[in-house]
Amino acid sequence: MTRSSRVPALIDSFLERLQAADGLAGVQVVDGPLVSDSAKSEWVFVGYDGDPEGDFTTSQTTQQWAGLGAKAKNEDIILTGAVLVRQGSTKVKPCRDRTFAIFAEVEAVVRADPALGLGTPTVCSVAEHTFHTEQTATGIQGRLPFTLTCSTRI
Predict the structure, then answer these.
(1) Is the pLDDT of residue 7 over 90?
(2) 7-20 helix and 92-112 helix, angle to the nearest 10 degrees
(3) CA angle 29, 116, 125 (to 5 degrees)
(4) How distant, in Å, are the alpha carbons of 47, 69, 97, 141, 154 from that of 32?
(5) φ, ψ (nearest 5 deg) of residue 152
(6) Is 68 helix (H, G, I), strand (E, B) or coil?
(7) What pLDDT is attached to residue 103?
(8) What are the DSSP calls for 119-135, one per residue?
(9) Rounded distance between C-alpha atoms, residue 55 and residue 14, angstroms
(10) How far apart are CA 23 and CA 113, in angstroms?
(11) H/E element holding 76?
(12) What does the pLDDT look like over 47-90, one tens digit per residue?
């Protein structure tokens, strides 16, 4: 079978590893945007930045030939993700601390296996993140969108 992209495999593998991570026990790990109401207060989204007003971009990919006659391509993937923590108070520090603690667990999953189980050559890393402190009708919310970059070959 010819592969046109490793994006689906990357998403599946990343989700599987996050869902199995001991440090994320009790955190709802979600594939894409949350499509149902949930009483959970802590989430990790894969393929969504946690902003309901955003553009809902899951991933971006660039590809180029690995060499003449190689019949293989190098693929660079940017996968969107987010940590979201909602607390029923207006205290910023506990929310910020918990948001970054969950983010550290996400990053630990990637550090433990930078290939995320994909074939060689594959290297992934959390490359960028932005922290947002948001006041909602139910209290403070910490939202930390991040990007997972992955360089691989198809």
Answers:
(1) yes
(2) 120
(3) 85
(4) 5, 37, 24, 19, 24
(5) -150, -175
(6) coil
(7) 98
(8) PSS-EEEEEEE--EEEE
(9) 22
(10) 15
(11) strand 73-86
(12) 999 888 888 999 999 999 988 777 889 999 999 999 999 988 89
pLDDT surpassing 80 at residue 1 = no
Two tokens, residue 146? 């991040």
Whether 25 and 43 have beta carbons less than 8 Å apart is answered as no
Q: What is the pLDDT at residue 119? A: 86
What digits encode the pLDDT tens for the residues 117-151?
A: 998 899 999 999 999 999 988 899 999 999 999 99
What is the residue type of 26?
G
Q: What does the chain come to in residues?
A: 154
77 within 8 A of 150, measured Cβ to Cβ? yes
Query: Which residue in the block uniquely carries the two structure tokens 């553009």?
Result: 55
